[in-house]
Design goal:
This protein has 255 residues and is of the alpha+beta class. It contains six helices and twelve strands. The strands form three sheets. The chain has a six-stranded mixed sheet. Strand 8 and strand 9 form a beta hairpin. The radius of gyration is 25 Å and the shape is elongated. The termini are far apart.
């Protein structure tokens, strides 16, 4: 390709999300239900109070292109979050993939949901074939330098958190299966409850007071309950007033 002077930026010369494939033809089919529901719960409850909603992007089962020297290489995290980028691509379009050299911001946290077939790669326990792209662990730790890497095994209800310390990930000792991230004023932990009408341990976000961040459905339910309680309080207040008036020999006009 002809080199301009000054050189054009990667955004102008390298493949964009429109040019790169969004699916792996060798791995057809959709994830299982847990791999659909769990990322939805993470996305619904990921609301860092110190970031506006239009500067947060979360992706699940989305191609993450990470190496401009090998623009066709990608990983497909079960869930990841990026801070400080528009929620829409170029502030106008839904993303087909996340292309690091176009966005110029790496993911802040990646969550992988362990499956029997991917466990070793997720934990960095596979040997790399030099003829093939690096594994997930190497990409997240060495190439993208993702600050936080979480792993959740639903079969064991096991949650593990790794934090980038220097050049390597170090596993964090968790308290009560929870981990607080002060930079985003949110914590990630294991919640036992019902989501999508399925009762089981789920990974979800919590606030500075230790309360689980609510989903939109839970917020609506909470508002409805608060309104019901308000009406009940008003009814009781009215009944007390009627009782007091009758005690004084006054029959209130209930019409």
């Amino acid at each position: 390709m002809y080199q301009t002077d000054p050189p054009l930026s990667p955004k102008e010369t390298l493949p964009t999300m429109y040019d790169l494939p969004s699916e792996d033809p060798e791995e057809p089919g959709l994830p299982d239900q847990f791999h659909l529901f769990q990322p939805q719960l993470l996305a619904e409850t990921f609301r860092p109070p110190n970031y506006p909603s239009d500067q947060i992007f979360t992706g699940s089962d989305l191609n993450l292109y990470y190496d401009l020297r090998h623009p066709s290489w990608y990983k497909r995290p079960d869930w990841f979050a990026v801070l400080g980028v528009p929620s829409l691509y170029d502030k106008r379009d839904l993303r087909l993939s996340y292309v690091v050299w176009q966005e110029a911001v790496n993911p802040y946290i990646v969550v992988e949901l362990l499956s029997p077939g991917t466990e070793k790669e997720d934990l960095g326990q596979t040997l790399r074939d030099v003829e093939k792209p690096p594994g997930k662990w190497e990409v997240y730790e060495q190439i993208l330098r993702v600050p936080y890497y979480a792993i959740f095994d639903r079969y064991k209800s096991e949650f593990r958190m790794f934090q980038l310390t220097g050049a390597r990930y170090a596993e964090v000792d968790l308290s009560d299966f929870r981990f607080w991230i002060p930079e985003i004023e949110l914590g990630l932990g294991v919640w036992q409850g019902s989501y999508k009408n399925v009762e089981m341990p789920w990974l979800r976000w919590y606030d500075k007071d230790g309360n689980w961040m609510l989903t939109s459905t839970e917020e609506e339910r909470q508002k409805a309950e608060q309104e019901r309680q308000k009406l009940e309080q008003e009814r009781q207040k009215t009944e007390r007033l009627i009782t007091q008036l009758r005690a004084l020999g006054v029959e209130p006009d209930l019409d």
